[in-house]
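Board work, copied verbatim: Cytidylate kinase
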Amino acid sequence: MENPVIVAIDGPSGTGKSSTSRAVAAKLGLNYLDTGAQYRAITWWMLSNGIDVNDPVAVADAAGKPVIVAGHDPAAPGITVDGTDASGPIRTQEVTAAVSAVSAVPEVRARMVELQRAAADTSPAGIVVEGRDIGTTVFPNATVKIFLTASAEARAARRSGELNGAQSVADTRAALIKRDAADSGRKTSPLAKAADAVEVDTTDLTLDQVIECIVTLVEEKRATR
Ligand SMILES: Nc1ncnc2c1ncn2[C@@H]1O[C@H](COP(=O)(O)OP(=O)(O)O)[C@@H](O)[C@H]1O
Ligand SMILES: Nc1ccn([C@H]2C[C@H](O)[C@@H](COP(=O)(O)OP(=O)(O)O)O2)c(=O)n1
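↓ predict structure ↓
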């Protein structure tokens, strides 16, 4: 049988990773994994259990405790923490503000990477994995690597639209620039474009155009291997 296809999609917040990855996985009949949801889930567990998220030693000590299970169906991925559905709670602004600190802790990353590689091992046809370090660290031999970008203005407008005006575009822009800097500046597996990734600037592209572009790249790669 053909080797499973691994599609790595990285990039900062609001570039379209989740929407694009889900659609690409659905179109190609592949599994899907949102690694940002995993980091959000462990962050939610830390906050819910009174762990000081700004104390890396406390976070490292607790990193092995929660049981995090991410779904792989692109139509309804879902995520549970200790058996409880966490899909809603992981998207709160409290979690968003704390996730960069928690995901910078090496013990947290080691655990998540283990889960991410296991997800690929149990995906016979293959998997689309989205995050920040998928092409650089988690799957350096991925079949196709994509790095999505977009202007800060476009990203803030998209995110603010999702929050239904609960946060202004200016505040959303400031928060995401702060998170980009933390994610790009950390020591362990920072947000970065792999040397062999294809960069796609989505600022002036529709979601359908981005999906089409990535599906074509994967199909071309599949045809030549
Ligand atoms: N190319 C695009 N053009 C316009 N809006 C987009 C595009 N890609 C994604 N979006 C919208 O932007 C928001 C953020 O997209 P999402 O996929 O969650 O980004 P990320 O996972 O990179 O944070 C969503 O509301 C999504 O529908
Ligand atoms: N592979 C990954 C994925 C996410 N993270 C961290 C850094 C990000 O700020 C958070 C949240 O990621 P997520 O993709 O859910 O964020 P957005 O949907 O882009 O707002 O997790 C990471 O460190 N490594």
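DSSP finds nine helices and eight strands in the chain.
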